[in-house]
Amino acid sequence: MIKLRLSRGGRKNLPFYQILATNNTSPRDSKFLEKIGTYNPILADNNTQKLVVDKERAEYWLSVGAQPTEKVAKFLINLGVKGAEKYKPTFVPKAKGSNLKKKAQEKLAKQQASN
Asked: Which domains are delineated in the chain?
């Protein structure tokens, strides 16, 4: 299976990412099939070089079945790449207190009962 994902470059505290089409079994920063763009989070939001993607190649990889990661899918949707909409990340926040341990849930239930 082919993935569209980020590969980290740069040095410590100065990240730079390449957007790659790669096999999903290969490690993050190893060999890849094609480089389709770059992402530099250090640059200002209004800078045109912050996110550079070859839309035609991204559309091609999506058309042959490549699956983008959540971050890459957000980038592609923001750029208006065709076919990226179906990979839109769905974030569902958990209810408050749903991830507590048993004792903490009992304590929270007591507090709510007393109020």
From this structure: 2-87 (3.30.1320.10)
